[in-house]
Amino acid sequence: MNMNTRNKEKALVVFSGGQDSTTCLLWALKRYKEVIAVSFDYGQRHKAELDCAKEITEKLGVEWHVLDMSLLNQLAPNSLTRAEIVVDENAPEEGTPNSVVDGRNMLFLTFAAVFAKQRGITDLITGVSQSDFSGYPDCRDVFIKSLNATLNLAMDTTFCIETPLMWIDKADTWKLARDLDGLELVRDMTLTCYNGVKGDGCGRCPSCKLRKQGYEEFLARYR
Amino acid sequence: MNMNTRNKEKALVVFSGGQDSTTCLLWALKRYKEVIAVSFDYGQRHKAELDCAKEITEKLGVEWHVLDMSLLNQLAPNSLTRAEIVVDENAPEEGTPNSVVDGRNMLFLTFAAVFAKQRGITDLITGVSQSDFSGYPDCRDVFIKSLNATLNLAMDTTFCIETPLMWIDKADTWKLARDLDGLELVRDMTLTCYNGVKGDGCGRCPSCKLRKQGYEEFLARYR
Fold this sequence. Notes:
homodimer, alpha/beta, 8 helices
C-alpha cells in the first residue's frame, strides 16, 4: 500500500489507559472521523492497565486493539515488567529511573505505525511530553520528529505523529481534559499508579505524587 | 547505561544465515575483537534459515542469539511468514514484492540496538544494500542514516550502523566473501532461497536467480 498523502480523517492513538493517553484519546475523538486505540501487552506489572484501557474505550465507543509485546522481556528485564524488582519511591536525580526499558517508546510507536499503515491510517497520536521529561530520551520532541522522518523513509508513507501534550505540564493536561469534557473520566477511570490502583492511586509512588501535584496545580491555576 | 562514546571493539551483526549477512559476519570478525550475531525468529516459512545461522556461527565460533519476533505475524500476515501464501516467482515490476512486511527491517534493527546496548555494544552491522534495492524502502542508505540518528536520540547512545554491502552489487559481495577467505563457506553454508534449499538453492525462485546471476558475474569479473 503506497500512502504518500496524509489521511486526515483517521487516527491511531497509542493508548495505555493512563491520564496522558486518555486525554490524547479525547483530543483525537474531537478531531478525526475515525479513531482506533492500540495498547501494548508487555507483561507489565499491572494487568489493571489493560483493564482500564478496555473500560475507557468501551465507554467512549472506540475500537481497541491489544498488541502483544511480550518479547520486550527478552531484551530488558526491569522493574515495570518484572514484579520482583522494587520500584524507586523517588526517581533518581540523575539519569533515568530504573523502570525504563531503553527504546521502549520507539518500539511501541514503530509497531503502531506498521499497524496503522495496514489500516490506511497515517496520523499517530502519542501522549509523550517533554515538559514532564523525567530522564526518558524517547519522550523528547527531537526524538519524535526524528522517528517520524525515519518511519516515513522505512515505509514510504506520510505518517504524522501528533503529540498534544508535548509542551504542556501536568496541570495543563488536566485543563485539556476538562476542556474536552473529560475531567471526571480521566480522574476516575485512568491508571497511572505504579502500584496498580485506579483513579487517585496508592498516593505513595512517584507517579501518584506527580499526578496529585498536577491536579492541585490545575485547581489552583484554573478553578 | 550511558554510552555516549562509540565502542570500537565490539559489534553486533544482524544475522539471517543468508549470503549477505554471512559476508557481513566475516567482515566484522576481521575488524572487531568481539562479535555477536543476532537472528530473528518471526515464524518465517523456513526454519532452515535459523538452522543455517546456527551452523555458521558454530563453525566460526561466534556467540549467537535468537530473538523471538513472532509478533510480527500480528501485524502483517504475508508470504514470508505464512506458508499458505504463494511467493511471486518474479518480483513485480512496480512496488515491493508481496513478501515484504512493512517496516520489518526497522523493527529488527531497533530490537538489535536495544539488545546491543544491554551488552555495551554500539556498532551494529547489517547487510542491507541499496544496489540490489528491490522496492524495499528500509534497505536504502537514507533510511539507515535516519534510523541511526533516531536510535541515538531514543537511547541517548552513540550507535554506529555499519553497512558493508550498501553500495556494492551481488558480484562484489561474492568478491568480498572471497577477500575475507569465506567464499566456500558463503557458497555452501548460507541460505537465500525462498524455498528453503541451502547453498545453490532451488534455482527457480527470484532469490536463487539473483544469487546465481551475481555469482556468474563475480566469476566473469574477477576470475
